[in-house]
Design brief:
By secondary structure, the chain is α+β, with helices and mostly antiparallel strands. It contains 21 helices and 17 strands. Among the domains are: about 35 residues, no CATH class; about 160 residues, no CATH class; about 90 residues, no CATH class; about 100 residues, no CATH class. It is elongated and about 180 Å long.
Length: about 575
Amino acid sequence: MENNTATKVMEPDEVRKNKVQEITDRLETGIKELFDSEKYVTWLNTMSKFHEYSLNNTILIAMQRPDATMVAGYTQWQKDFERNVNKGEKAIRILAWNPHKEKVERDKIDPETHEPVKDENGNTVKEIAEVQRPSYKVVNVFDVSQTEGKEIPTLATELQGNVRNFQDFFEALKRTCPVPIEFENINGSARGYFHQKDQRIAILEGMSEIQTIKTAIHEMAHQKLHSVEQENNQSYQSKKQEEKAQTRSEKEVEAESVAYTVCQHFGIDTSDYSFGYVAGWSQGKEMAELKASLLTIRRAAASMIDDIEGHIKEIHLEKIENMTIDEAAELLADRLDTFAYDTDPYSYNDMIDDREQALANLKNDLVTGNIKSLDGVEDFLKGVIEAECLESAEAAVLLDDLHAFREKYLEVDKVQEVSKATITFYVAECMEYPSYGEYHETDNLKDAFEILDTIPPQRLNAVTGIGFVIHDENSAIDNGQYPLVQGDQIQYDAINMVDYYKDSPLVQGAITECEAILKEREAVKDSVKEVVAASKAEKPVDKVDPPTKKSLLADLKEKKAIVAERTAAKAAVVSKGQEVQHAER
């Protein structure tokens, strides 16, 4: 398992505050779920077998073995936990309650009057009584780290896995922490500690990278919140916490919660360990320690995140400072290729046939300053960042490094000639699927509108419109279709979502021309409406007399008269024709 660690692009304080709060909310939810699990019940049953020691004995244990966590007697380890003390282990000596009885002479007291009993001479009667005298004895106990045998149930699972760019990230932690961080072979079960007197942090050597990072941040949180200097300062403590000294449980809950929040921000998932650790130090399912410290945890985590991000960027700038362009390009190309593969190996394998050749091509694009290729890489990284996934943090640091590379190495004289971009337009009967239905291309926007008018509306029950295509071989958006006008509406929002289009003089010029054409078309429509309205107002209206109601008989007589008239006219025509025929013979 590999985790991403890098800085996101610096965000406004309010956005950062909300993100940190989301992470701590997930922490609280995860712990609640753990409380309801069988794992917690098993752990609770085991912990109930351990004796709760007095304050004096707790001090004695800490003085003899500061890293002690679970302590029991020699026989109890065998009987209750099926574990044996390792041969040669030095016992922890504490005091155990050991009262003893002895017989003493004392005044006899009357049970009714509660007064001393007198004899006949007036003397106080004596009696022999057995009393218990308080006493302590020294006993030997041993910490769990001094035993071996059956595994002790635990809520926190040891973290395994690597952290991407581990060395750089750990160096950023060291620069962030005001006290030294060193690796040690720590005896016992402790994975790290903050030494108040020496003002230093020790980390157990030999742990996994993810456990090492988590432990380092945990101890850094102790230094930030619980050192004597910080407790006096109270810069992160709430008013409620200022009123009383914090218990160890409260301090451990705070430190681990800060560690979880910071790690989660950088894409390192420590929930398998952190949820159990916080639950183990909580004094009940109500999680009073966590809830009382949420404000402190969020403030401290946000502050640490800002500092770590700044140092990560600083380290990466230092690394390329003295490199040649070939060295820097090879390093950055390898990181970009690894990130792309790890983020989505299936898509990577679908797109890349020869990974070695693809890596060589990417390096060449970096060296030669292939704008189209590098812009495409930037768009990919920005997409991962916007997805707000575990890989977002690494994408952000790679984007920062790519910007730094371009600023340092790709001056104007080293970047290839940028061809002049052009713009053309297309008219589509269906803007969603331009190839479906009528489709026309033109380099003139006015012609595009005239073509649009010839397409029958609603023939395909689709939205007709005009789109544009930018032709720029040095840009990742070369030859890509994009909507400009749909339904007489310019697509401002869609266009402004793409930085290239928002900043392109060609696209913005097309928008301006569209605005003028649409305004002109609207004016023409208004003029036509005015002419139609005026013509209707000037045209005289003929007066129509209401129809006269006729009787059925009168209507019949009128029709017979018309028939008789037509018959007579026809007979006259026939008679005249016959006369003409006789004359010709």
